[in-house]
């Protein structure tokens, strides 16, 4: 079935350390992989996305890597700061449609000052 | 430019009652979505609409109906509410012109007692 798995469910790091969140998806035809950040009580917002023709993408302290063969992708946050504390969701599109986007269950990241 | 607006923000229903969640976007997006968010379950896709006049089932469509009234509006109806439908509901929209980024509304907190 159509599924996105995400690990770990919770992650605690010291300020300044790196955080890595990993996701796997079930459909080999998926070609769009966004990451969203949701702060407590707020709506999810896009932080970075990657498409299947690219293996890695960076935006300042955030990077995403994609391994299409293994059907997994990862979010890397370097030099973490307390304001990075939030729930992070990975997602993937299904049925080769950008419209059917399914999310993973989320990772609650805590950055300890 | 309000983005995605959904109403009501909070609602308490009795089991068996019906209600409609309203959603409108002013970004001229073709695609619209309804997700529900439960603790530890992430964002689950209920229904989506790739364009005006079309709707498709997502991961958890049972107990819901949707209407894509026009390009701007996408409503979600609960015909006979059940306690299992207690959740936070997010309406969202996206479009290829915006890089397929999904923009979420602020959420509707629904409690069924």
Keywords:
heterodimer; A: about 110 residues; mainly beta; six-stranded mixed sheet; 11 strands; B: about 110 residues; globular
Notes on the structure:
The complex is a heterodimer of chains A (113) and B (113). Chain A is built from no helices and eleven strands. Chain A is mainly beta. Chain A is globular and about 40 Å long. With 113 residues, chain B is mostly beta strands. Chain B is built from no helices and eleven strands. At the A-B interface, strand 4, strand 5 and strand 10 of A face strand 4 and strand 5 of B.
Compute the CA-based radius of gyration of chain A: 13 Å
Distance between the termini of chain A: 41 Å
Percentage of β-strand residues of chain B: over 45%
Number of strands of chain B: 11
**Main sheet of chain A, how many strands, which sense, barrel?**
6 strands, mixed
> Which percent bin holds the helix content of chain A?
under 10%
Largest interface: A-B, 23 and 26 residues
Task: Profile the largest sheet of chain B.
Answer: 7 strands, mixed
Structural class of chain A: mainly beta
H/E topology pattern of chain B: EEEEEEEEEEE
Residue runs with pLDDT of under 50 for 5 or more positions of chain A: none
Question: Which range does the strand content of chain A fall in?
Answer: over 45%
**Secondary-structure element sequence of chain A?**
EEEEEEEEEEE
**How many DSSP helices of chain A?**
0
Question: Helix tally of chain B?
Answer: 0
Number of strands of chain A: 11
Radius of gyration of chain B: 13 Å
Shape type of chain A: globular
Could you give the distance between the termini of chain B? 36 Å
